[in-house]
Design a protein that fits this description.
elongated, 1 helix, 167 residues, mainly beta, two-stranded antiparallel sheet
């Protein structure tokens, strides 16, 4: 029995618990340079006409003439007079002429900006950026440098350092 106990205790001395030590070190450097592109969003309006009133004699009712795919409708005049002289009356005539379609928006292929931009009734225009002196440099010392560009540009320099130790 004594030999068995000695064998078990002696064997236990040589069994050690498993251990794993791990060290991770990550360094990430990045530079991001962006130049915005040009863009335009237009919304054309159509032509509209309305007339309303009371105690008004209508000889010829006004309205819109037919337009085309590229030209807006126009107004045809009406002829109106007071129906009963000396009585109260009201009259309102409203006209809105729509936008003419223009297909000549040209984009400068080198700069990516609009040479000519057609504007309609509702517009949102974004001018393109110009790179100018826009630049970014990664450095072995860990300090990235970025240089501002012209309008519509962004420059981002980033360094991420992470270290983890597991036992």
């Amino acid at each position: 029995m004594r030999k068995l106990l000695l064998a078990i205790c002696g064997g236990a001395i040589f069994i050690t618990s498993a251990s794993a030590a791990e060290i991770n070190n990550t360094i990430t450097d990045s530079v991001q340079l962006t130049v915005n592109g040009a863009g335009i969003s237009n919304q054309r309006i159509g032509s509209s006409y309305s007339v309303t009133g009371n105690n008004v004699n209508v000889t010829t009712l006004g309205g819109l003439t037919g337009g085309s795919a590229t030209a807006p409708a126009t107004m045809s005049a009406g002829s109106y007079a007071i129906n009963t002289n000396g009585s109260s009356f009201n009259f309102s005539e409203s006209l809105s002429i729509g936008d003419t379609v223009d297909t000549s928006m040209d984009v400068d292929s080198t700069l990516g900006t609009f040479d000519t931009a057609e504007v309609y009734s509702n517009n949102q225009l974004t001018t393109g950026g110009t790179a100018g002196a826009l630049a970014g440099v990664l450095s072995p010392t860990g300090i990235s440098t970025v240089t501002a560009g012209g309008q519509g540009t962004t420059a981002l320099g980033q360094r991420t350092v992470s270290m983890s130790v597991f036992d």
